[in-house]
Amino acid sequence: MPEPTTKSEPQETEQRIFEAALTVFASKGRDGARMQDIADRAGINRALLHYYFRTKQQLYQAVFAHLFQQYVNSFSESLQLDGTFGENLRDFIDRYIDYVREHQDMARLMMNENLAGGSLLGEHLAKAFATKGSPQQKMQQAIRKAVETGEIRPVCPRQTMLTIISSCAFFFLIAPTVKVMNPLAATDFDAFIEARKQHVFEVLYHGLALKGEAT
Amino acid sequence: MPEPTTKSEPQETEQRIFEAALTVFASKGRDGARMQDIADRAGINRALLHYYFRTKQQLYQAVFAHLFQQYVNSFSESLQLDGTFGENLRDFIDRYIDYVREHQDMARLMMNENLAGGSLLGEHLAKAFATKGSPQQKMQQAIRKAVETGEIRPVCPRQTMLTIISSCAFFFLIAPTVKVMNPLAATDFDAFIEARKQHVFEVLYHGLALKGEAT
DNA sequence: GTCTATATCTCGATAGAC
DNA sequence: GTCTATCGAGATATAGAC
User: Fold this and answer.
1) Nucleotide closest in space to B43 (CA vs C1')
2) Strand D closer than 7 Å to the CB of B46?
3) Can you tell me which residue has its alpha carbon closest to the C1' of nucleotide D3?
4) Which of A21, B27, B76, B84 makes the best surface tag, with the fewest CB within 10 Å?
5) DSSP codes, chain A
6) Is B60 a member of any domain?
7) Same domain, yes or no, for A13 and A75?
8) Is the pLDDT of residue A2 over 50?
9) Which structural domain, as residue segments, surrounds residue A29?
């Protein structure tokens, strides 16, 4: 064990900054975010942000890079996708929605980056693919295989992948709108999420499967 | 004709401010936007922004309200949805994607507002529904009817509507990501859009239709 | 209606005490 | 490692000339 620190654990503080920064960046974007807001949310002083991460830019990039790393490592690793296409599709939808549910700020941050032009996306996406393959890549490969074996209709794997993640992620990002338009989402968002899992699977499975195959 | 103005048409200037403000707000959000950027893009001075719209807040709200008005009036009016469900679905998908294509900044602005909490969404959404019904409301009604007549499987109209707009709008908002992952989207986005229209219709139609009905 | 100049405030970042 | 105090840049907004 190292020598005792003057005050609380430094790692703990850095973690609090990370989480606070993620939340604020996710809501307001890189330029809209205020260092004061991040400091307040982390329960520390503004100057301490600059002690850990010299500039706002570096803090933003650190958060961004960390989320990508975490996404590839924790989500992708647990994906098997070695069953029938129907099993794989349900598994992916369930896990993807669960992951986004637990990492909504990450999804919002990525969307903000896209809206702002996405200058950071290129390198990180490329790196994620180069290492172990992203969850999307895995599922896309499963779609391609199912098309080749004739398990599903001859759809474009890329378009299909886009349709799946659209159906799974979009509603989180427009949650304020969804809660205005759907009573269930407003009163019990978790119940709404479970209903959505089932709906997305049913529609997409029937939409992809060959006629004659039922659920 | 009214008396001649000192310089150029005032209406023209206000319009240019509107469009410039929309683009900047759409990219950076309400707080991230800079009045200087808007003025530059509109080709005028910063002070003139305050002459037309006193504050940044008022400019933002004016742009937001105008877009809602325009959306309900121009898009909703042209929707018929009086054919078979398949015809209605294809019609909606084509028109919705075309509308978002021509109003990408509006879509981005709405997403930014959602990400920031959506405090402006409630009243405007409520007002849009109260008047003539939004395009979404119309299509949702068509889904409900098709379920009742047995034309399609007994799906939840609200969930289905969400799946349709997710599949039609999400890819515009993450265009930077899509262009990294899909070669066609990077080289010819218009061709990609047309391919997407077809894909979304096919998957969703087969996903909703009763077995035995083909395209 | 449009500009220049300026007032006022807020933000990001640093210096230095503890 | 954490704070207070402060500097300087850049932001919104206003005043006043044209």
Assistant:
1) C2
2) yes
3) A45
4) B84
5) -PPPPSSS-HHHHHHHHHHHHHHHHHHHHHHH--HHHHHHHHTS-HHHHHHHSSSHHHHHHHHHHHHHHHIIIIIIHH----S-HHHHHHHHHHHHHHHHHHTHHHHHHHHHHHHTT-TTHHHHHHHHHHHT--HHHHHHHHHHHHHHTTSB----HHHHHHHHHHHHHHHHHTHHHHHHH-HHHHH-HHHHHHHHHHHHHHHHHHHHBPTT---
6) no
7) no
8) no
9) 7-54
